[in-house]
Amino acid sequence: MSKKKRILSDRKIQMPLLMLFDIAAIMASYFFALWFRFDCMYSAIPHEYLHAYIFFCPIYAVICVAVFYGFRMYSMIWSFVGLNELAQMMIVSCCMSLLHIFGITLFFHSMPISYYLIGLCFQAIAVCGIRISYRLLLILKNRQHNDETAGRVMIIGAGSSGKMIIRDMQSGDKIKDKVVCAIDDNPGKKGRFIEGVPIVGNRDDILANVEKYKVNKIFLAIPSASAADKRDILNICSETDCELKQLPGIYQLVSGQVTMSDMKNVSVEDLLGREAIKTDMKEVYDFINGKVVLVTGGGGSIGSELCRQVAAHKPKQLIIFDIYENNAYEIQLELRDKYPDLDLVTLIGSVRDSRRIFEVFEDYRPDIVYHAAAHKHVPLMEDSPCEAIKNNASGTYKTAYAAMTHGCQRFVLISTDKAVNPTNIMGASKRICEMIIQTFDEKIKSGKANELPQFFTHGGTENADKDGTGRVFKDIKTEFVAVRFGNVLGSNGSVIPIFKKQIEKGGPVTVTHPDIIRYFMTIPEAVSLVMMAGTIAHGGEIFVLDMGSPVKIDTLARNLIKLSGYRPDVDIKIEYSGLRPGEKLYEEKLMSEEGLTKTANDLIFIGQPIPFDADSFLVHLDAIFAAAYKNKDHIKDVVAELIGTYKPAEVYNSDTVRMSAVANEKAADSGAERHDYEDDLIFEQREATV
Asked: Can you tell me the distance from the alpha carbon of 292 to that of 430, in angstroms, rounded to the nearest whole number?
């Protein structure tokens, strides 16, 4: 028999049985009321009272069942009977008792008042009791079974959220896990109980009580905790072999509803210990609304998230431009499904193709450009340096030129912290991109946009000044801005997906160097910063996110292994493969020459442009492009002549290792932690580079 047929069959059996029980219970209730009224002596009951009961109660019981059926009291799911259902049954029973009073008095005989009151109480208890007892028996049965198979849970946070989670777990029919203890940093709660669960101490007692109570799951239920507190607590929890879950945020407290379904797995992002960037996106979305927006590299990690956020706020038109058709097609399908009314255009092409990029600007006239197209993989670009220049630097120049000459309002370049004191050609190429943006801004503001040459474009359709009058360069209003941020968690090629794949294979997890550190941010944070930059830009700025303290990649790898339920260097080995070509130990957010100016957002800063001669830069840029398109072997030397801060990785890292040894020695002498000296180390690196 199918499951559906079995359910229907059960209902056909359950409903008549429950109706028969209600009839018997109602009749028994009023009989015992009469019996109790006359001191539990059947012979003492007057004949007229007994006669009235015998002839009226069967009729009354049938009427009650009919009313119960009309109020759908036989359609309730027994296992979910709660206060609302019980209240409904009590109200209906009370109303029916009035019918009993008038009916038996009017047609048969007036009964003692105590008969009516006791009968009502017995009827309510009997009718409600059978329904609630089923659920109680089911809970007791589940608890008995769960004691043998359930996970043993520790709740961290004995506040409102923790209480709701415990209550939900104790009352849920399908939740097998059992809460065995709770942790809270409030010393006044230690030794007390929350929903019958003992509060056994603070965060320092986590490890001891995991062992004492044989805990195998830990739930963090402190949605209002700061990122740093969460990181510290989760770092302690990661020393255990327990499965970790947490509430996503404080919004559950606002809604007042916190259940097991709100719990999520702890991700490695939670261990970074940095508050998420908060940006007033209303201003951003007001700016985007009704605009034509072009996203180059729209199929990539950053580009696709840009497309999602732009699409959510009603642009006039969104244009996805990418060289890789698979990624472009994927984000196209996603956006068409989610926003069927969106005017979406998906185009395939390269920013290196001047004819194609000019054609796009001519046909669609975008108001805003988010330029995310770039080659970003450091080791691969070290092996193909000319391609980095062609795609990153030349592609940016051609796209910026097309934007300038086709009425674009804002052009936002996606840059990287690798552009600061670059030790690889990818970082150097992105530094050139920043200088291109600053040069365009300077020339436009000084009314000399016509002095910007069209490097390596094909004569013909993309020639900006077709008529030779220079009118195209009059009244140009395009504002150019760059956004610089660190490594993006979860992006294509980032360490997290690589580490996860290595863990799935059983290891080893490869880390390039035990001391390598990086700044991290999430994709939504990066995108919100990019969009804010496009809104508040006045031209020429380099926006920088305060990404907090840098994170050791080695620590990141070890935490990810623990979160996956394994022990580093025991279950999953960690191997150090050595720094890759062009890679350095430390990334910086700003060059030492650049000062910082605060914005309305405390986590977003503006780096003041480093002054350089734009005309001289354009001459050098011409030589760099020429060398790149001729695939010259000495392209790195040509780039180094232009980018004075470009220092090969092998030289940079030898200085870093020496400074790292000094920092370790200082820490050992003073008894301090090594990271106490890391800021000084990075400052010394900057000064040494400059």
From this structure: 26
CB 484 within 8 A of CB 546: no
Q: What is the CATH number of the domain that holds 184?
A: 3.40.50.720
When divided into structural domains, the chain yields a total of 4
Residues 6+ apart with CB under 8 A from 629: 386, 390, 394, 456
Verify that 391 and 528 share a domain, yes or no. Answer: yes
C-alpha distance across the termini of the chain, in Å: 80
Q: Which two tokens stand for residue 418?
A: 């690798």
Task: Confirm whether 384 is domain-assigned.
Answer: yes
Nearest to 564 by CA among 331, 266, 326: 266
pTM for this one? 0.64
Q: How far apart are CA 523 and CA 313, in angstroms?
A: 18
Domain that holds residue 253: 150-266
Are 582 and 425 contacting, i.e. CB atoms less than 8 angstroms apart?
yes
Domain co-membership, 478 together with 529: yes
432 within 8 A of 393, measured Cβ to Cβ: yes
- For 413, phi then psi, to 5°, come to -90, 135
Task: Name which of 158, 162, 192, 196 is nearest 180 in CA terms.
Answer: 196
Peptide bond into 611 cis (omega under 30): no
For residue range 171-209, what is the model confidence (pLDDT) as tens digits? 665 567 788 999 998 888 988 988 888 999 998 899 999
Residue corresponding to tokens 């450091």:
378
CA dist., res. 217 & res. 178, Å (int): 10
- Classify residue 558 by burial, with Cβ atoms within 10 Å: 0-12, 13-18, 19+: buried
Q: Is residue 18 part of a domain?
A: yes
pLDDT tens digits, one per residue of 555-613: 888 878 877 767 788 888 999 988 877 777 776 665 555 667 777 777 678 877 778 89
Q: Enter the tokens of residue 67.
A: 């009313």
CA distance 239 to 245: 15
Burial 412-434 (b: 16+ CB within 10 A, else e): bbbbbbbbbbbbbbbbbbbbbbb
